[in-house]
Amino acid sequence: MADGSAGRREWRVTGMDCGSCAAKVRGAVERLPGVADVDVALMTERLRLTLSDDTTSPESVERAVRAVGFGISPKGARPEKPAGAFVLPDGALPAAAGSSESEEQDPAQAENALTPSWYETSKGRLVIGTAALLATAWASRLIFPADIAHWAFVLATLIGVAPVAQRAFAMARARMPFTIEMLMTIAAVGALVIGEPAEAALVVFLFAVGELLEGVSAGKARDSIRALAKLVPKTAWLEVGGKVGEVPADKLVVGQIVQVRPGDRIACDGEVISGTSGVDESPVTGESVPTLKEPGAEVFAGSINAEALLRVRVTKAAEDNTIARIVRLVEEAESARAPTERFIDRFSRVYMPAVVGVALLVAIVPPMVFGQAWGEWVYRALALLLIGCPCALVISVPASITSALSTGARNGLLMKGGAVIEAAARTTHVAFDKTGTLTQGQPVVTDLLALIGNKDDLLALAAGVESGASHPLGQAICAEAERQGVQAAAATEGRALPGKGAEATISGALVRVGSPRLAAERGALAGDLQSRVASLEAEGKTVVVVLREDVPQGLIALRDEPRSDAASGVAQLRALGITPLMLTGDNRRTAHAIAAGLGMEQRSELMPEDKVAAIRDLASQAKVMMIGDGINDAPALASAHVGVAMGSGTDVALETADAAILRDRVADVAGMIRLARAGMANIRQNIAIALGLKAVFLVTTVLGITGLWIAILADTGATVLVTLNALRLLLFQPSDPAVLSSRSTETISDTVRNNASATT
Fold first, then answer.
1. Superfamily of domain 401-439+562-677
2. S-S: 383 plus which of 320, 402, 650, 701, CB 3.0-4.6 Å?
3. Does the annotation count 433 as an active-site position?
């Protein structure tokens, strides 16, 4: 089915267990005319491409994929189970975010569906069959004469290798001769030719075992992504006409009211309209301590109501809720491939033909040039062929990246793909915006100094100009006016002055509310007024000047306190060897007071373009990560090597920057870098495992130390080891161990109790 853009189509491909499988699917469709922009995602089993229907039909694409041994079904249709593939049953994978009606599944079926046991899969049956054949052949050696036993092993080999050979020739017809199936077929048949049927049968069995283990490992790796989609409940309690009824959660409409009982998962993103309760948001943000939710508070789908009944107004449709967008982000991130992954792909395309060439030389040169025995060197060449498959190498990077992305998503750290992980791991400098990033973003008015009229007049003017403002300072002024019962002056023609303030027309006069710099530019910051501004700024306060026709009406001082974990977060960055820096449009004195308290450098009085220039200057000498609110700092975020938006699941936080921190914690910046570094370390380990085992067995095979069955163990064993090593990242804790250990026993116990009661 089309995904909404002209010519762009998407399918689900089943049976892909390793990087080579994805390469086979890509190769099968790339050769078709009218096909472009092919994107095959292994972990999410997704095929996307741009298709010219006039040249090639969608059915032709499906036939090409099936021809190379994989199942394929349009997005939203029932998944197809290919022969020999490890596929979850229908309903085991929850409908993806944004699914259409054709994708709907029975909630009970989705909940109760289980992953099949290994012996219920086609690959499992192949293992059982080859094991039985091998056991029968070995038994015949004990019972019958040697000649009969010989043919028993030959028969076991031919029967076991038949499905492998079938796939191999299908790949060859698709112009992909260098596949593990082809190498396996040649090795098994070659072993029969040189009189080694027992070893050939053993190799076929070990290959089947390796294929099964790869399928199981790939399924486990995908579970972490599926687990995210399962967080949102299938049903919700909807209020209609004073009555409450259970309805499908994906049918909720913005504006409807739902009830969330104690212990229930919240079924939508919404706003609390009545009730007060602690809500466990750890499924969304990774923060285990329950958050108090009162009327007006925002709640996320998938979080758990721990204490009391809440009535929630739906603010986002099911396909746009936080969990759905996180799932989409993790799925899409697989397409944003890291430079290391792209290099490994290019290398693997050369590696297999090169090994085949070496194997051919090993089979021919010693017998022809040095008069060695043909049988011995052909045997060694056949063993070399089995080492030629780059499965472990190809999957080494995407498996680690997928695990890192999933771990990050569970901890409120979202990164858009392997390229972002790789860039984050190399970070040397972190630049922070101040307001809303290092500070709470909720400044409060501390001083009102009226120069003309009284304080109420001053506040009315300022609130009139800032009415409807999105900037935290403007919102704080309006909030103070409301708190004091002061009516905002009626204003027209209001507009923002980027980096300086705002202006509007009130009672026919132009009124400006802005920074002291704006007042200085208007020639309104003279002697005594300037000293008063300096005095307030020395106290770490931000000062705005109210001007009426460029005549100062008074000063308003505000203060935005640093976040509670800001100092700790900055210290953690320094412990990682990273230099923190604050970039702000605020005045020098206020910026210095905040930065000094946090132990970091600062650059102040920066216009938006100045921030961009500062980031570009840093980026020319270092690897820079920029942390901002995702809106005002968008140009600076785009200029950094990694732009990170800070915000609790806002659209901008999830979609604007390269990465996002959901729980508004400065310490999570260090956590993101720790996770990225752990991911890159895991990738290096995987590459070392894959190449190391290959190198060792290439040498030992050429020297005649290891044979065919060891070679197949080296291939499939390396793939399984690499996958299992990548899965270790799912257990990684990005938080600083010192921070975790400092939590009080009482707090942890309370959290455990709340979580237990919520899931009961």
1. HAD superfamily/HAD-like (3.40.50.1000)
2. 701
3. yes
